[in-house]
Description:
Layout: H1 3-21, H2 23-43, H3 48-67, H4 76-85, H5 88-117, H6 125-151, H7 157-184, H8 192-218
Helix pairs in contact: 1-5, 2-3, 2-5, 3-5, 3-6, 3-7, 5-6, 5-8, 6-7, 6-8, 7-8
Amino acid sequence: MSFVKQVKSLLYKEILLEWRSKYAFNGILLYVLSTVFVCYLSFRTTPPLVWNALFWIILLFTAINAIAKSFMQESKGKLLYYYTIASPHAIIVSKIIYNIILMVLMAFIALITYSIVFTNEIGDIWLYLLAVLLGSISFSTVFTMISAIASKAGNNGTLMAILSFPVIIPVLMLIIKLSKNAMDGLDQSVSYDEIGVLCIINVIVVVISLILFPYLWRD
């Protein structure tokens, strides 16, 4: 079976399992909606800077809940079965793509709910949507890679937090800066540096995942 067919089959399997159970999706959706509601009860009104930072904090913890268990929830028997039918590269790529789809969906649901509850003016809505898209992709690639590493260390949640911290903080700072530029309505050319750096980070993380995962897979 070719690499592309392996990725398609594994991706279809992930989507089909989620569609049948819906446990993860419903749990994450409930988390997003309840978090936004609690923030509304706590703050009522927020200035633009706080509105933006609070939104990305919600998305960050949504990503942790949605993506961090990508490999931790897989049993050893299931992983052994995957090893016999697909290459490690196909497995990690399918996980990354699935997590990107899930995270983008959750991010836009969170943005719509958040915008309804906390009304705020966004100067450049298209740039802000791009920031949400890039942020979702960045969270997905980083946490999928870290989840794969942590799963080989006894599913240690503390290890995952330690490994993800130095990677996710610079990404989060770039995303917040990019989205703030969008909220302020600045010219899009001002944000080219942030967009470029985020794209480069995502490419680097994916390449590192493709290099490291086959070695992790053998253990």
